[in-house]
Specification:
- InterPro entries: Cro/C1-type_HTH (IPR001387), Lambda_DNA-bd_dom_sf (IPR010982).
- Pfam families: HTH_3.
- It comes from Craterilacuibacter sinensis.
- GO terms for molecular function: DNA binding.
- This protein is an all-alpha fold.
- The protein has a single domain, classed as Orthogonal Bundle (434 Repressor (Amino-terminal Domain)), CATH 1.10.260.
- It is built from seven helices and no strands.
- α1 packs across α3 and α2 crosses α3.
- The longest helix is centred in the C-terminal third of the chain and has 22 residues.
- The termini are far apart.
Length: 114
């Protein structure tokens, strides 16, 4: 176990907690087994590129996990990344309802500006 792996594991756990995922859910989203995720989080090994890529699709800040630096570049906040991950997991019906809400909200705001 080296200190670099321990730091990566700590940040991976922080990202999992920020997204509100269990270890089982996080493992599934990364395409790895539960024990493999535990090994990553404990610092016994470091995540492979394939898992990191899959987690990024669910809002994990991979640059942060690997380097400790925020990877959003000011483009998306961690909350925005979490919402994007939830969006990708949502069924089409829920997505349609959310889009309908935001379209109506945007119309109402524009009406107030007139």
């Amino acid at each position: 176990m080296n200190s670099r792996n321990q730091e990566i594991g700590k940040r991976l756990r922080q990202e999992r907690n920020r997204l509100g995922l269990t270890q089982t859910e996080m493992a599934k989203r990364g395409g790895v087994g539960f024990s493999t995720l535990c090994s990553y989080e404990n610092g016994d090994s470091s995540p492979k590129a394939e898992a990191l890529q899959q987690w990024s699709e669910y809002g994990v800040d991979v640059l942060y996990v690997i380097t400790g630096s925020q990877g959003t570049g000011g483009i998306m906040s961690p909350d925005e990344m979490m919402i994007l991950g939830a969006w990708r997991d949502s069924p089409d019906e829920l997505r349609a309802a959310i889009l309908g809400f935001y379209r109506a909200y945007g119309s109402a705001i524009r009406q107030e500006d007139v």
